[in-house]
Specification:
The chain is α+β, with helices and mostly antiparallel strands. Helix content is 33%, strand content 30%. A 7-stranded mixed beta sheet has the order 1-2-3-4-5-7-6.
Length: 169
């Protein structure tokens, strides 16, 4: 597993992240009956304009690519994730995705570890994230990395509950 980390800045890099997010979240959307109508913010339905807008409002994105990749594009991206600093001590991880071709090979943990290091360098002591509450495998994965369930909340417009998790670093 040899990858390099890239801070997402250009439109082409944003497009590569959107492609990765669409691919990674397609399986989730299919499994949980999510559609563009009932879950428009799900990564399966994300478009370039929406991600670029999120980034202009404070979401920083990183991606990991194959070590020998010259450019970040749809063919070389392994995964991507975003984070948002909420206060001097708190941040959240958002839009975490690993391309379906690379799932289950440790890249998910690699991405989270890279983001945690960035956030710790900024003085962050509490990192939050959220996921579908019914996805016990994903919740278990996050727990194995030190995250604990803070609360589960059902929103009127969501088909599924959201599990909010937190880790103190």
């Amino acid at each position: 597993m040899s990858t390099k980390s890239i801070e997402i800045r250009t439109d082409e890099e944003i497009k590569a992240c959107v492609s990765c997010l669409n691919d990674a979240f397609y399986c989730i959307a299919t499994t949980y009956g999510l559609t563009k109508d009932n879950a428009p913010n799900n990564g399966a339905f994300l478009d370039f304009g929406k991600l670029k807008s999120e980034m202009s409002k404070g979401v920083s994105m990183i991606a990991i690519s194959q070590e020998d990749a010259v450019n970040l594009d749809e063919k070389t991206i392994v995964g991507c994730a975003g984070f948002r600093i909420l206060s001097s001590q708190k941040a959240e991880i958002v839009r975490l995705a690993v391309h379906s071709s690379y799932k289950g090979q440790g890249y998910e943990k690699d991405l989270i570890t890279r983001i945690e290091k960035i956030l710790i360098a900024h003085g962050i002591t509490e990192i939050a994230l959220g996921c579908i509450a019914e996805d016990q495998n994903l919740i278990g994965f996050y727990q194995s990395l030190g995250y604990s369930v803070k609360k589960i909340k059902q929103f009127k417009k969501h088909l599924h509950g959201v599990c909010f998790m937190v880790k103190r670093v």
